[in-house]
Structure formats: C-alpha cells, structure tokens
C-alpha cells in the first residue's frame, strides 16, 4: 500500500525547559497532541531514538504507521504512556517482577511485555496476547504524551529497514510528506532503542537489548534469561526488532570479528580488494582508529573508550555511509558485555548476518 502524501508540520522545541508542565505550554506540543487525538501521525524525540506515534486505541490510526514506514504488519509495536496510571488501562496483570523494574527504570528506556486488556488496537499487538509498554524519560516525549492523554503506539520514526533516527533531520529525510507532524527536540540521548523484557513468566526474558543493560537488569531482579529469538530470528517476533531487515545502510555491510590486530588487518585487506574492483568502500570504526585505515570513507561512530558514545553515534554513522554513497562497508566488532551487547546486536542486524572472522596472523 502506498502512503498518501500529506503536509508535514515541523515544530522546533527549544531546550531546556524547567519542567514537563512548562513544555506542555509550547504551541508545538499542544498542536502535536491534538493531532494524535485526531488519529494522525506525529514523530517525536525520546531518550532512545525518535518515535512515530499514533493513538494506540485506534486501528485506523495505527495502520497509518505501517503504511508510512513500509513496515510489515506482523511486527508488534510498543505503546508509550505519559503517566503510570495509564498502565492499568492497558494490561490485565502486573507481576511483581514488572513492578520492581518499573520502580527502578521508569521513566526510562525499558519496555515491559505484559498481558493486555484488549483496549489497544489489534494492529498494535500483531495478534499476540501481550503488549509492550514503556514510559519514556525524554521531557518532550512526556509532555506530548501527557498533553495528548492517550496511549501512543510508536516504533522508530524511519522507513522500515533503515537505520533508526537519532536526530529530527533523519526523520525528515525518511518521512516528510508521509506523516502529519514532527516535534524537533534535538538529538536523542541513548541512541539505541529501549530494552525489551518479557515479565509474563516467572523468570524475566530479555527479548531485545537496549539502553538498559542485561547486567543492570540482573542487579535488580536477579536471574534474567536471554531469548533464543535474538539468534533464531525466523520465528514469529515477540518483540519489535526481532524480525526482518533492521538498521541497515544501503550498501553491502560486513561485520569483521577477531583480535584487534587481526581484525584491522583483515578489514584493510578486504577494503583494498574491493577498491581494486572499483567499489566505493567505507569503513566503520571509532575515533581512536580513524587514521589507521585507508578507504574512500572512514567513519567513526564514537570512542571505543566510551561505549555509550558508540551507542549514541552508531545510527548516524550508518546513515552517513548512505549520504556518501558507500557500496561496500566493513565494520569493526566490539565486546559483548554491557552496552556493547546492544551495539553488537544492532551491527549484526545492520550487516544482515554477514560476518567475517578475521584470519589469525601467523607471524610471531
């Protein structure tokens, strides 16, 4: 289905404000909230990435999200709320584990999977008996949600398959003319999507790594299982981001693993080979190694010594390769603990599972 062209309003929300209540007096917040109540689509900043919102109770409104994004309709959406009381209207039960996680991490980049009451549109849940709910901590998002007064279904505000948007300009590039409004609140903070945890079973299950690490979850609730769907993605998705092509640049991307020396040597050799074939080559690295590679473009996603900076800069770096026209992209790999676990999850998806294991050096 082709998205209908519409005029997209864009409001710039100046930061900082003294309170969420102060933000609600902004004309842009009030107009955007009215659009949501009218069944229209509004993109807005959260602390993770920009989201594309619609009234979660309206199937007609929610279907516009899939149309605008070109997103498969069997991929469930996360519902965003502005007040804790709204959760009771959406879910039938809240296990003790969920209550503990809410007390520790809400508002914040944590989505909980809970049994729903049937009050959200069928398109939100993709036919599942559960729904993902979160309360974002970004003041613009909270002001919008509270002013709208409705639960808002909101995946990332990008064309499906593209790197998620961490700046308003990314949203404009992908969705201008496809959505009704865009609240420009500056760059997002975390830079990767929310952590998704299923708390419907006795032991909580991590469905998607995100801004809150697995280690942080375990400190609060003890045991946390990692869903096998993070590796076996052919199954029906239980959470957004578990199926289909995600976060990918236009060029063919490969993730290279190995020790530092072996990885760097392999990346440079592959870059040289691709250049010799006439391909436009990009290398994804960090600030520390920018000058150690030779290619058409060497792009940094942050500082390896500051993992959070890599999470913040990853999607913008992937979009940079599209702007430059890179045809073949080689990406460094990272450890798999803490926020790096989330970064590596997104890199594997961006590379669509294409991974090269660097050959070990035979030199002593």
From TrEMBL:
GO BP field: regulation of translational fidelity; tRNA processing
EC number of this enzyme: 2.7.7.87
Annotated ATP binding sites: 71, 75, 130, 156, 164, 208, 247
Pfam family, one: Sua5_C
Lineage: superkingdom: Bacteria
UniProt GO cellular component terms: cytoplasm
Residues that hold L-threonine according to the record: 48, 80, 134, 154, 194
YrdC-like domain mapped to chain residues: 26-212
Molecular-function annotations in GO: ATP binding; double-stranded RNA binding; L-threonylcarbamoyladenylate synthase; tRNA binding
Matches recorded under InterPro entries: DHBP_synth_RibB-like_a/b_dom, Sua5-like_dom, Sua5/YwlC_C, Sua5_C, T(6)A37_SUA5, TC-AMP_synthase_SUA5
Keyword vocabulary terms for this entry: ATP-binding, Cytoplasm, Nucleotide-binding, Nucleotidyltransferase, Transferase, tRNA processing
UniProt enzyme class: transferase
The keyword Repressor appears for this protein: no
Primary residence: cytoplasm
PROSITE patterns, per database record: YRDC
Catalytic reaction list: L-threonine + hydrogencarbonate + ATP = L-threonylcarbamoyladenylate + diphosphate + H2O
Role noted for this protein: Required for the formation of a threonylcarbamoyl group on adenosine at position 37 (t(6)A37) in tRNAs that read codons beginning with adenine.
Family according to the record: Belongs to the SUA5 family.
Protein name per UniProt: Threonylcarbamoyl-AMP synthase
Lineage: Bacteria, Bacillati, Bacillota, Bacilli, Bacillales
